[in-house]
Design goal:
Elements (H helix, E strand, L loop, with lengths): L7 H13 L7 H23 L5 E6 L6 H9 L17 E4 L8 H6 L4 E3 L8 E5 L13 H8 L2 E7 L6 H12 L4 E8 L3 H17 L11 E5 L16 H11 L4 H57 L8 H30 L1 H5 L11 H16 L2 H6 L5 H16 L7 H9 L3 H27 L6 H7 L6
Parallel strand pairs: 1-4, 1-5, 2-3, 5-6, 6-7
Antiparallel strand pairs: 2-4
Helix pairs in contact: 1-2, 2-9, 9-10, 9-16, 10-12, 10-16, 12-16, 14-16
The protein binds guanosine-5'-triphosphate and magnesium ion.
Length: 480
Amino acid sequence: MIDHAPSPDQLLGLTATLERLDLGSIGEAAEACRHRAAIAAGQYLVPRLTSESDTIVVAVVGPSGGGKSTIVNSLARRRISEVGSLRPTTVEPVAWTGGEVPPTLDGLRSRVAGFLVDSLRPPPEGVVVVDTPPPEVVDDAGVPIVRQILEIADAVIFVAGASRYADAGGFALLGLAAERGLPTVMVLNRLPESSESHQVVAADFAAKLAARRLLPRSAADLVITIAEGIVSSDTGALAPEIVASVAKDLEAMADPQSRPGIIAAAVAGSIRRLRDDLAVIRTHVFDRATRRVELLDPMRAIYRAEGRRLVAEVRRGKFAGTGVAELVDGLASAATRRAGLAARTSAELWHKSEPAIVESVPDLFGHGIETLEVAHDRLEFWLSELDDLPRRMSRRRLGARNRRRLAESVRIASIDPRYVPGRRVARRLAKIPGLVESARDRLADELRGILETDSLRFVERLGPVVTGRDLTELSAEAYE
Ligand SMILES: Nc1nc2c(ncn2[C@@H]2O[C@H](COP(=O)(O)OP(=O)(O)OP(=O)(O)O)[C@@H](O)[C@H]2O)c(=O)[nH]1
Ligand SMILES: [Mg+2]
């Protein structure tokens, strides 16, 4: 078993967190790490650490047209997977199995109808061979399907046609297999018939692989070469002896003595990569959290400054003399205008430092479409509370008429610094110290609240926050 392997429970918790998180707003690199870490933890490590199955999954991968499906058919001596001259031909994985299927294939099995080919002529016992689509075939999220299969495979047969063996896409797939420590059979297929050129091409391929640390040494004999042969229209296969070397390597992987070691290496590789991916995700999350503060702080300061200006102009008496009927309208328009100014300044600032966040939302350059309505509601609420405020602050009962008079004076006093109440009202006001100040403060709170609500549109633009708990899950000690 693996030293310091995380427990299946930890991995299940981690998988749930990874599946729930949305790192799209944090960036493509973080999102790509999240996606593959979720597959590695949930679809490979949990099943491998909880199941007794030692059946291995051998993925046949490589550039389109290299002859992957032809080789699978040739090994099976029957049509397992369609071969064709249109590129790509294979668009969904096909598994060739004698019956037993490890739980690491459950994710694929539920996704792809007709995925399994239970064969009359099965592969060696203890092996499931999966023919994969070429790298350009992607799922709904834009991730190549073959990459996802490489997260759950235990070993690899890499097939490249002679004309495309130096494709970057092929090396990228081999890089993934190497990161996970998967044993990889290299096949150079469809070589010209003259066998002396085989050595030359195989040596060049081996040198390129070794330079990328994808082979331990640059030696042509580490590459299986197959000449272009005759493909049977009946079975889509070459004559079985042509793929004899590949069949032999497959037999070797299937040896019951070898399989536990192959699985242990792949599990260790997945854990190693999972740790690296989690570290990358955490770095991105921290960077984004810092960036969030850098964006939000100045925006909030701009809104607060507009809020202060609005409150100051109300307190200076800009709305003095406005009748009760027009007051809410007047204040709501003023607050909305201030929100529009704050929004424009903030959006321009964000545009300077991170254009992409504001470019697609021109609305951010002005107040929100609901701000005027929100302002109305909040100011109506303030006004309606004035009626009850004297009673609440004095705990005294007041007649309905007196209450209305007092509320009216408080309303006027809140917006007119030069207001002098009549003597009787002044006496009542004197008995409830702080009443006018309280009404004024409540009005200021509502005005500031209108602006703050408008500013939430900026906060939303930055997407969901990754919580401290999520971060703890992503940095669980077992992955350190
Ligand atoms: N004559 C001949 N044709 C071959 C040989 N190997 C593959 N082909 C043909 O090359 C074409 C592509 O082969 P496939 O096996 O479909 O290739 P693939 O790698 O599975 O391609 P994708 O599914 O697109 O990734 C088909 O028309 C095959 O018949 C060969 O050794 N000889
Ligand atoms: Mg194919």
